[in-house]
Design goal:
The chain is α/β, with parallel strands linked by helices. Helix content is 38%, strand content 14%. The chain has one domain: Rossmann fold. Helix 1 packs across helix 2. The chain is globular.
Length: 277
């Protein structure tokens, strides 16, 4: 395995497609970041008009990522693979993991070329650990698993935490076999590995979620919110960690987080973590 200190550029020519909204850049805008462009901001404005709690949902997802990562690091997990990374907004996953385990190794993956331009920020690892970045798409899981960056950074003979936070609702049944994709990734991980998922749901406010998913689709980004039973299928065959699949605000809440005043309907997501037998 390498030391994770080199930015990996997978292409010579990068088309950033700044004239089109992208979910990663929209998420950055929701989180108060600066790496977004007029097309992204216009799409966010439309999303908020359709679902006024969209900002709460995005930031609640981010808080879930931090809590779940910290909890897993406290359990001794020291390898993380984050797919659907988005623009680096501190504290990012590697900062959380390495604050608990300095030697933690993290691979970030995203399909937005602009994330590649920010890889240097993603790769600012603790000297005892490692971070790496690879540009790839979750809809081609075999290519992800064969990527040399993944295999040179993480040891697949030891447990890996696979993080799919706020990602799978962008993989629609109309275009892909989302459960097959997740199964392929799960099957490749060793015993003791964990899967982390947060996912948008219509369970709490179906009308609002219908409006916002329609807005995303009109902006060129297909979205599919899923009910709890559909989300639970992602964890099939693995053992859920306590407290199971919960609205993300209720998954091991941190009393110091201000978002505890939000409602399940505002956050509009479920989250869960499961371990491979």
């Amino acid at each position: 395995m390498d030391d994770g200190n080199t930015v990996r550029d997978d292409s010579d020519v990068v088309d950033l497609q700044l004239d089109r909204p992208h979910s990663a850049r929209m998420y950055d805008y929701f989180l108060g970041g600066i790496t977004n462009f007029p097309a992204d901001r216009e799409a966010v404005a439309q999303a908020i008009a359709a679902f006024p709690s969209a900002l709460i949902a995005a930031r609640s997802n981010r808080a879930f990522m931090r809590r779940s990562t910290r909890h897993l690091a406290q359990l001794g997990i020291d390898q993380f693979w984050d797919i659907g990374t988005g623009i680096p907004t501190s504290p990012n996953l590697h900062e959380v993991a390495q604050s608990v385990i300095h030697r933690a190794r993290v691979v970030y993956t995203d399909n937005d070329p602009i994330v590649l331009t920010h890889a240097r920020a993603l790769l600012h690892s603790h000297p005892e650990g490692a971070t790496a970045y690879m540009q790839a798409d979750v809809t081609d899981p075999e290519a992800l698993l064969a990527h040399p960056t993944l295999r040179s950074t993480l040891d697949f003979d030891r447990p890996v935490a696979l993080s799919l936070n706020a990602l799978l609702h962008f993989v629609t049944d109309e275009h892909h076999d989302v459960h097959g994709i997740v199964k392929t990734l799960k099957d490749a991980l060793p015993s003791g590995s964990v899967l982390v998922v947060s996912h948008a749901t219509p369970d709490f406010d179906p009308e609002a979620i219908s409006r916002v998913t329609a807005t995303y689709r009109q902006a060129g980004t297909p979205v599919q919110a899923r009910a709890r039973d559909e989300i639970a299928r992602f964890f099939d065959g693995w053992t859920l960690l306590e407290p199971g699949i919960q609205p993300i605000l209720r998954w091991r809440p941190d009393p110091e987080e201000a978002h505890l005043t939000f409602t399940d309907a505002e956050a509009a997501c479920y989250g869960g973590v499961a371990r491979k037998p």
